Amino acid sequence: MVFREADLLGHGNPGYHITHYDLALAWRPSTGRLTATARLVVTAVDALSTVVLDLGGLTVSKVLVGGQPARWTHRGGKLRIRVGRTLAAESAIEVEVRYAGRPVPVRTRHWGEVGWDELTDGVIVASQPVGAPSWFPCDDAVGEKATYRIAVSVPDGYTVLANGSRAGKARSGRETTWTFDEPAPMSAYLATVQIGQYADVALAPGQHAAVTRSKLRAFRHDFARQPQMMSLFVELFGPYPFESYGVVVTEDELEVPVEAQGISIFGANHVDGKRGFERLVAHELAHQWFGNSVGLAAWRDIWLNEGFAAYAEWLWSERSGGPRASALAAEARRRLAGEPQDLVIGDPPAKDMFDDRLYKRGALTLHTVRTAMGDAAFFPMLREWTGTYRHATATTADLQKLAQRHTDTDLAPLFDAWLFAAPLP
Ligand SMILES: [Zn+2]
Fold first, then answer.
1. Does residue 2 register a pLDDT over 70?
2. Catalytic: 284?
3. CATH value at residue 399
4. What is residue 169's predicted lDDT score, i.e. its pLDDT?
5. Which of 121, 146, 139 shows the shortest CA–CA distance to 22?
6. What is the pLDDT of residues 7-49, one digit of tens each?
7. Does 29 share its domain with 165?
8. More exposed terminus of the chain, fewer Cβ within 10 Å: N or C?
9. What residues does the Peptidase M1 membrane alanine aminopeptidase domain cover (predicted)?
């Protein structure tokens, strides 16, 4: 195993599970300051006297456990809370943390800055993989999922998007509080808040968008086929796993689009009025099944997220009048053959988690499995995968086992060569 847990900055904490997060936030555009209360439902695994949460550079003012003031320390990105009397195994308690400050993203060695970040006029949260503690106290482990309620108060004129469906919009003075409920379990890195002066666009029932006004026209053209994309993916991958799907287009340019649960975020540079980035629209939508609903138990299996999302680009292409998946696979293989062959995508080093070779080779792996099994077995297998592990987590071994049940062809040599050896098969 070459994936070093140290690269995850020590995020994630043993001894308990969080089943629900209730986050009440107020954000001021003039200062960038966040004032927040987080209420977490914490369930002890074994008897527990201290709850350790991940939280970055924000200032904690008060902590309550079960409604009573608790003792705590906050240093090195860890908020350590004394439970008071020891919490018995499997019992639950509410932990409330009040905090404030101007959030800054988490700096990482390999992935740049992740988490809460200010836009020219608003906020973007893109936490993959370790950015969640930049804005709320959490158990920042990829495999830990919980339900969420997120309420955000902003001055009038700003639109807020967060995970789940909108549960309320209440005006008070010159502020509006936007409340969202996410009843489907979610990893902390997929929790998001998007704030900006956006225009609301309805694309189809259950599909909405918040778009920077300068890109409205181009957006309507570039995303016009997203409803067809949704229908295709439902046909191929099974029911859409969440209540709704939202898209954000920021006024700022972004290096890459990013996925959150039920929401994808694109930069102004990804909307050109020519559908020049339509493959990315497909990629991000596919993450709702692969990565968000079927989540990872560990980051070393990241190819499961990116391989499926990249393969979905090819499936959309062949079903929407573009090149067939086999042609795109052949082209990707030719390109990969010209790249350094030192990456084992089934166990990548942390620095290569988001390497394009992992994406392309992941897609090629799935195309090779499809070719070996035939479409009549491959697509039912995909639907069983998204059904069995819906709102849960899965591993590469789980996929290998499931795929093998759908064919008499021995898939072990194929998976070994594509996932666990560096040279291109
Ligand atoms: Zn992706």
1. no
2. yes
3. 1.10.390.10
4. 96
5. 146
6. 788 899 999 999 999 999 999 999 999 999 999 999 999 999 9
7. yes
8. N
9. 238-418
Distance of CA 287 from the midpoint of ligand 1 (Å): 7
Map tokens 């456990």 to a residue: 65
| Residue 5 pLDDT exceeds 80 | no
- Identified catalytic residue from 96, 251, 284, 313: 284
Helix axes 356-373, 412-419, angle to 10 degrees: 170
For residue 123, is it within any domain?
no
Query: Is 283 labeled as ligand-binding?
Result: yes
Considering the candidates 198, 240, 359, 389, report the single residue annotated as catalytic.
359
- Strands 207-212 and 198-204, how do they pair? antiparallel
CA of residue 15 to ligand 1 center, whole Å: 31
Domain that holds residue 213: 197-288
Residue 64, pLDDT > 60, answer yes
Which CATH number belongs to the domain containing residue 208 in this structure?
3.30.2010.30
Last residue in a domain, options 231, 255, 288: 288
Q: pLDDT, tens digit, for every residue of 316-341?
A: 999 999 999 999 999 999 999 999 99
For the residues 202-227, what does the mean pLDDT come to? 97
Does residue 179 share a domain with residue 82?
Answer: yes
Residues whose CB is under 5 A from ligand 1 (ion)? 306, 309
Do 102 and 152 form a contact (C-beta atoms < 8 A)? no
Q: 373 CA distance to ligand 1 centroid (A)?
A: 25
Q: How far is the CA of 190 from the centre of ligand 1 (A)?
A: 12
What was the pLDDT predicted at 4? 63
- C-alpha 402 to ligand 1 mean position (Å): 23
Reported as a single tens digit per residue, the pLDDT across 127-146 is: 999 999 999 999 999 999 99
Question: Distance between CA 4 and CA 1 in Å, rounded?
Answer: 8
DSSP 190-257: G--EEEESEEEEEEETTEEEEEEGGGHHHHHHHTTTHHHHHHHHHHHH-S-SSS-EEEEE-SS--SS-
pLDDT single digits (tens) 350-384: 999 999 999 999 999 999 999 999 999 999 999 99
208 in a labelled binding site = no
Domain boundary at 288, 321, 356, which? 288
